[in-house]
Design a protein that fits this description.
Order of helices and strands of chain B: EEHHHEHHHHEHHHH
Radius of gyration of chain B: 25 Å
Radius of gyration of chain A: 29 Å
Structural class of chain A: mainly alpha
Number of strands of chain A: 0
Order of helices and strands of chain A: HHHHHHHHHHHHH
Largest sheet of chain A: none
Number of domains of chain A: 2
Shape of chain A: elongated
Largest interface: A-B, 63 and 62 residues
Mean pLDDT of chain A: 85
Oligomer: heterodimer
Number of domains of chain B: 2
Distance between the termini of chain B: 29 Å
Number of helices of chain A: 13
Helix content of chain B: 40-55%
Mean pLDDT of chain B: 83
Largest sheet of chain B: 2 strands, antiparallel
């Protein structure tokens, strides 16, 4: 067996070269151009494999822990650099929204259908029930909140379009802080075997259904729909996608199939991430619309309805058709 | 020897050894991050308050970004570490030892909302203490581990000494322990070095006074010197 010192003497310079090459490649851009690469690019892969072999030999031949740790550290750095994802965020981002998001939504239609049922089901049932039993609203919402909604959407009181730009920016912050956060919590709630997600979806469905049903019933439908139609497609769609992503986590924990729960969770979380990206983007966009377009009183209601309908159509067309290609 | 390591097989057919970070350093890192976030929000709030309601809107967006997205952004762009993790020498990696990407960083940071429940990272702590990689729920779902960043290893020579064979053949563990001792001897006080070396009397067989010197001689032999 080769003594440790001979081993180090024979290969030490190669390790040093590889280390210097790593230093140069991971240094900031300005420094990188100054230092000449210690290693030709074509030689890197071979040098790295040699290094791996030396680590294995050092372990097997009982060389000192210091040497093994040094080689291990060097191989970790090499492994991270060579196998790490090199970020090309720009093109990837375009590709994601042009293609990958819509594909992910179509692939995951089952959890999305469940999320729709859990959210729109209670919403529609409560809103319709409210038309028959108007008093139901007092069981679902506190009196102050009902009063606040009534005041907000009262056609007589509404000095529409008078909210200054300042106020709208404040509301933008509020909607992002509040709505996107609720979306993230809906997703995270999936880790509680889906219970958290189901809770957030149905509770939000019931509350939105209750306020919509109540405002329709007392005759404020015009102002109410005028306000919400613009951002409804993005916001409700975003909530459903977050819910679907959460249900995927819950599903992995409840029914992992032939995998361990941890593996199932890891796989489904990975598959759910595109939905979270998409939903986050939709909720953020909804916050902009809700802050700057929806409160505009100068725009007549029919135009607002039309804008809302156009957005719904675009969102649905996008999810149905974007990113479809003929099989090669 | 230690069970706080994780071996990662690589395509080259070898195993990398990662040193896992336990709950205490991670909690400290979290504390530093939280303090930093509060400090940023306080300063920003003080400045933005001058802008009235518009300023409050900006502050809310800032608070949202800092709470939900900033940790993930740091982990992707700043070499796997938020400022708190960096100060404690920790970093986040994928299970296979590669640097963490957006998908995993986002999942582990969004699921923080669940790890935090019911109070003070209760779920996270329970999860971390029942799996061998100290993963909180977010780490399990994202497939990530939090490990110690290894400081650059400088070669440490084994002190020169006339090689002397041990009294009996050594096992792998013993062999490593002796070499480890020799490499670290320079950083120990003579008393501590002697204390440790006396433990090895079965393989050196000398009086306690000469224990350190003899053990270094054995190490010299084990390192292959003739």
């Amino acid at each position: 067996m080769m003594p440790q010192e001979t081993f180090e003497a024979r290969h030490g310079s190669q390790w040093l070269e590889f280390e210097q090459w790593l230093d140069a490649m991971t240094a900031s851009r300005t420094k990188r151009s100054a230092a000449a690469p210690a290693l030709a690019e074509a030689a890197v892969a071979h040098r790295y494999r040699c290094l791996c072999q030396h680590l294995a030999l050092a372990r097997e031949r009982r060389y000192s822990p210091g040497l093994v740790a040094r080689l291990n550290g060097l191989v970790i750095r090499g492994h991270q650099f060579l196998y790490g994802a090199h970020l090309d965020t720009g093109p990837a981002l375009v590709r994601f929204f042009a293609r990958d998001l819509a594909r992910a939504v179509r692939t995951q239609w089952r959890p999305i259908a469940w999320a729709c049922a859990l959210f729109f089901g209670p919403l529609i049932v409560v809103a319709m029930a409210m038309q028959q039993y108007p008093d139901l609203v007092h069981m679902l919402m506190p009196a102050e909140q009902i009063a606040a909604y009534e005041q907000m959407y009262d056609p007589a009181q509404r000095r529409a379009g008078e909210r200054g730009a300042q106020v709208d920016s404040y509301m933008l912050g509020h909607y992002i802080w509040n709505n996107v956060r609720i979306g993230f919590q809906t997703f995270a709630g999936g880790m509680l075997f889906g219970i958290g997600t189901v809770f957030f979806l149905t509770v939000n469905g019931v509350l939105i259904g209750a306020s919509a049903g109540h405002l329709i019933e007392i005759g404020f439908a015009r102002t109410f729909f005028g306000f919400v139609s613009g951002h409804s497609a993005l916001e409700l769609g975003g909530i459903v996608l977050m819910g679907a992503a959460g249900l995927m986590l819950g599903g992995a924990l409840i029914a992992p199939g032939r995998l361990t729960r941890a593996s199932a969770l890891r796989l489904r979380a990975k598959a759910a991430v595109p939905l979270v990206y998409g939903a986050g983007a939709m909720l953020t966009a909804a916050a902009f619309v809700e802050a700057f377009w929806s409160p505009l009183g100068v725009v007549p209601a029919p135009i607002k309805y039309a804008a809302g309908a156009v957005l719904w159509t675009l969102v649905l067309l996008y999810f149905i058709f974007a990113g479809r290609t003929r099989a090669p | 020897m230690l069970d706080t390591t994780r071996a990662v097989p690589t395509p080259e057919g070898i195993e990398l050894v990662l040193r896992l970070a336990g709950p205490v350093p991670r909690a400290l890192a979290w504390l530093i991050d939280t303090m930093l976030r509060l400090a940023v929000l306080l300063v920003a709030g003080w400045l933005l308050a001058m802008l009235g309601r518009f300023g409050w809107g900006v502050l809310l967006i800032l608070a949202f970004l800092l709470e939900w997205l900033a940790p993930a952004a740091f982990e992707v762009w700043a070499d796997g570490s938020t400022p708190g993790k960096k100060s404690l020498g920790l970093m986040v990696l994928h299970d296979d030892g590669t640097p963490v990407g957006w998908a995993a960083a986002l999942v582990r940071n969004l699921l923080r909302a669940i790890d935090f429940l019911p109070v003070g990272y209760g779920f996270g702590l329970v999860a971390a203490s029942i799996n061998r990689d100290f993963k909180r729920l977010g780490d399990i779902a994202a497939g990530t581990v939090v490990v110690y960043r290894d400081p650059a290893q400088r070669p440490v020579p084994i002190p020169a000494a006339a090689p002397v064979p041990p009294l009996r053949p050594l096992s792998l563990e013993e062999h490593r322990a002796v070499l480890d001792f020799a490499e670290r001897a320079a950083t120990l006080t003579p008393q501590r070095a002697q204390e440790i070396a006396e433990l090895a009397s079965p393989i050196t067989g000398v009086s306690p006074q000469r224990a350190t010197q003899r053990l270094l001689e054995v190490a010299s032999f084990l390192s292959g010197r003739k």
